[in-house]
Automatic annotation (TrEMBL):
Keywords on record: Transferase
Keyword set includes Transferase: yes
Domain N-acetyltransferase, residue spans: 2-147
Lineage: superkingdom: Bacteria
Species name: Thiorhodococcus minor
Keyword Transferase: yes
Protein name: N-acetyltransferase
GO molecular function terms attached to this record: acyltransferase activity, transferring groups other than amino-acyl groups
Length: 177
């Protein structure tokens, strides 16, 4: 199994390399820039990055950043973005280990809901559903609305009302959505 640890500043080049290689040409630079920006994102509560090490190298990365609502101030949500594993290390459980580790660590802190914008076929296996995301409006209009998913841990946003989410500065880029 890969070794999962918190990402640090010294992982900068490895993280950039993962995204440049894992994502297609047209979007890899945008996503690499997002990953690096989140590495130094100063949010409260904190943005966390995790890296996976295998064969003594950093081969996978994920970031989780907080999202807020204009509803109850004690509500705590996090969005998983971005995620990538070096091509030659894919399909070995590293992506799953990164996701599960992040969710486990953040759940201990009382996170009420996790969000992700990605392929439902992949994220569905971790418990994310489009249905759970239904009453949370993403910060920007989505290019692929079917990719908007959530996993609600605690039902705390009141009365089933629709709430609009705000995200950290690194994610405030319409092209990412
Ligand atoms: C998505 C990604 C992070 C998964 O990492 P990984 O280490 O290969 O994941 P795991 O080994 O835990 O899981 C692999 C499984 O997910 C499946 N999978 C990977 N990407 C998928 C996708 N987009 N849709 C559906 N299934 C997918 C694989 O086919 C494999 O299935 P299997 O277990 O039945 O063989 C990796 O494929 C990657 O970096 N892809 C390019 C970047 C990307 O798409 N990131 C996610 C953006 S939302």
């Amino acid at each position: 199994m890969p070794h999962i640890r918190l990402a640090r500043g010294i992982d900068h080049n490895d993280i950039r390399d993962i995204y440049l290689r894992a994502f297609p040409e047209g979007e890899c630079k945008l996503i690499a820039r997002l990953a690096l920006s989140l590495l130094s994102e100063e949010s409260n509560p904190e943005t966390i990055g995790l890296v996976a090490e295998a064969d003594g190298r950093v081969v996978g990365h994920v970031a989780f950043s907080p999202v807020t609502t204009d509803g109850p101030s004690h509500w705590l949500g996090y969005i998983l973005a971005p995620l990538a594993v070096k091509p030659e290390y894919q399909k070995g459980g590293i992506g799953s280990a990164l996701i599960r580790s992040g969710i486990e660590q953040l759940s201990i802190r009382g996170v009420d809901a996790f969000f992700v914008y990605g392929d439902p076929e992949y994220y569905g296996r971790f418990g994310f559903t489009a249905e759970a995301a239904g009453r949370f409006l993403p910060p920007y209009e989505l290019q692929y609305p079917f990719g908007w998913q959530a996993m609600v841990m605690h039902e705390t946003v009141s009365n089933g009302q629709t709430v609009k989410l705000s995200c950290v500065a690194s994610l405030r880029e319409p092209a990412l959505w």
